[in-house]
Amino acid sequence: MISQSIIPIPKNSMLRLKTVSSLLTPLILAGMIGLGDVAFHSFLPQTQSTAIAAPPSASQEQIELIIASKGKTGSGDQLRRFFYGDLEPLGVQPGGAGMVVNLYSKKNDVTFSYCATYDVVVAVKGGRVAMFPASEVK
User: For residues 91 and 104, what is the distance between their CA atoms, to the nearest angstrom?
Assistant: First the structure.
């Protein structure tokens, strides 16, 4: 003989539980996959994507290329590609289209004056130069 439960459960509530269950299952699975993917990438750093800079090559040739294209559009892009992660800001000064930033390369002992408005290098000088002469950065 089957005993009936003390609390009667209407048949409609069972249907509601099945629909809620069928809606929650895909959400729970997607959440578990997402968390698993994050955990996988955090424990295996070699699977993370990294920024790729220009391959190391003759730095003097790169400096000469920037000097040749000084004042031309695209020289700022060359500067960022060639000296990715190596430039240290020394200061700003009036020049270019308002203000220029003086960036120093420790590795090559060269200072570049960069105008961000037009994305151009306006001056290059060996050594650590805090301020370029005003005639060079106009």
Answer: 10
Residue-wise pLDDT for 76-119, tens only, equals 999 999 988 889 999 999 987 788 999 999 988 999 999 988 89
Tokens of 73: 């559009």
pLDDT at 124 over 90: yes
CA atoms within 13 A on the CB side of 90: 20
What pLDDT does residue 34 have?
A: 74
CA distances from 17 to 6, 20, 26, 27 (A): 20, 5, 15, 16
Sequential DSSP letters for 107-136: TTTEEEEEETTTTEEEEEEES--SS--TTT
Burial class (CB in 10 A: 0-12, 13-18, 19+), 104: buried
What is the 8-class DSSP label of residue 25?
A: H
The CA distance from 92 to 88, in Å, is 12
The count of C-alpha atoms lying within 13 angstroms of the C-alpha of 62, restricted to the half-sphere facing its C-beta, is 20
Is this prediction's pTM over 0.85?
no
Tokens of 3: 């005993």
One-letter amino acid for residue 6 of the chain: I
